[in-house]
Amino acid sequence: MKNWPLWEIFIRSKAGLNHKHVGSLHAADEEMAIQNARDVYTRRNEGVSIWVVKSEFIVASDPDDSDPLYEPAKDKVYRHPTFYELPDEVKHM
Amino acid sequence: MDIKSLEDRFNEKIDKDIRIEPKDWMPENYRKTLIRQISQHAHSEIVGMLPEANWISRAPSLRRKAAALAKVQDEAGHGLYLYSACETLGVERDDLLKDLHSGKAKYSSIFNYPTLTWADMGAIGWLVDGAAIMNQVPLCRASYGPYARAMVRVCKEESFHQRQGFEIMLTLCKGSEEQKKMAQDALNRWWWPSLMMFGPTDEASTHTEQSMRWGIKRFTNDELRQKFVDATKPQADLLGISIPDEDLKWNEERGHYDFGEINWEEFFNVIKGNGPCNKQRIDARKNAYDNGAWVRDAAAAYAEKKSKVKQEAA
Ligand SMILES: [Fe+2]
Ligand SMILES: [Fe+2]
Question: Is the ipTM of this complex over 0.90?
Answer without folding.
Answer: no
